[in-house]
Amino acid sequence: MENNQDIVKVEESTIDHYTSDASSDWSNNKYAGHKGSGSFFTAYFNVVCVVAGTGTLGLPKALAIGGWLGLLILGLAWGMAIYGGIVLIRCLYYKPGQRLHDYKMVATHALGWPGYLVTAALHILNCFGCPILYLVLAGQNMNEMLAHTNGALSAATWTIIFGCILIVPMVSLKTMKEITIVSALGALCTGIAVFVVAIQAPMDAKANPDPVKYAHDAVIWTGFPSALSTIAFSYGGINTYPHVEHAMAKPWQWNYAVAAGLSTCSILYFLTSVPGYWAYGASTQSPIYASLPEGTGKLVAMIVMTIHVVVAVPIYTTTFSMETQEWLGTDRRFGKFGAWVARSAIRIVIMIIIVVLAVEIPYFGDFMSLIGALTNCGLVFLLPVLCYLRLTGIRNKPFYELAWCCLILLLGVVGMVFGTIDAIKALIADFQAGQ
């Protein structure tokens, strides 16, 4: 009997079946111990804010290095990211009446200590790497926008200033539920930036045609791994999903929330990548607004994306700090005030580390490719599928779902291995050129 309980097979064989029966699981006590109070929109805006943003900025460049084939990969990644987000949360409840706490616990139950170590390493790199990338971009934007004014400061100085400002919401906001308004603001900013690029880029291309400089390619095989890693980065944030789902009052709505959130992000991605690459071709830069002509459009895009990346930082840092607090048991061991002091200390230390690293790694595009290849290919594509098959079984899956899983694993391995190699080579070249 104990062995049967240890290896639990889910009754559902497909995602669709799971979705349709999810509400009945609530009354069947599947979500025992769930105490969230957030709404569907709490989860939706958190997903949009943490996933969209810098991915929107980098995807036109991904097409420039991979060709129009990148659109097919983007479409596949869209479906794969939704699938991974759904099955990861299903893994949290693979034992009836129990809920695993986070991504690392899922990997531990599925793959043992090796799984825990790999997932923890990728998770830490992601939780620190993405905020570092965001602060790098915010600092560079402020430096460029105020370069010829009395408020001109270096990019590193602006990075430090933003780090100090972000300590306030990090300390005052306890869980993912409290940052819903911040997430909604970030999503709005992304929408504005997409609107600017979608209109400004084609106008610029029409006014300044250059068939040679702005040439296009159907596919560039040598750039495919790097393009795939950038696309993987665009669907990152999956390690925050367990905490976002836990904040929901009705967790059975998670499937709809993650599908709606990632679909919104994908629409924004297509609206940016297609006109961006069509307008600037092989000369497309990352972030895309660097390719826009000087003027109001570029300035607006830089302002709203600076706001977005800044408000997205607390989502990652809150996720990591909540897990650190759970590991240290601060909420259980100390009183209300003591827990607040411990939480504040943990989050301040996290922000200090992020700011220091952001100052030392000022290369946006190539660093984004490295994070996408090394962490997101593993966290978004590989591990959710491996854990899901391990925890719920293989033989109870239809052949088309298994084929889909194999495709996800194949793209994940290609992007992780070859994308990481390309990104490291590019970063080495960046540091050597900067010396």
Automatic annotation (TrEMBL):
Domain of life, per lineage: Eukaryota
Domain Amino acid transporter transmembrane intervals: 37-424
Membrane topology: Multi-pass membrane protein
Record localization: Membrane
Single Gene Ontology MF annotation: L-amino acid transmembrane transporter activity
Gene Ontology annotations for the cellular component aspect, listed alphabetically: vacuolar membrane
UniProt keyword terms in alphabetical order: Amino-acid transport, Membrane, Transmembrane, Transmembrane helix, Transport
Residue stretches spanning the membrane: 40-59, 65-93, 113-137, 152-172, 179-199, 219-242, 254-279, 299-319, 340-361, 367-389, 401-421
Tagged with keyword Ribonucleoprotein: no
Protein family per UniProt: Belongs to the amino acid/polyamine transporter 2 family.
Entry protein name: Amino acid transporter transmembrane domain-containing protein
Organism: Mortierella isabellina (Filamentous fungus)
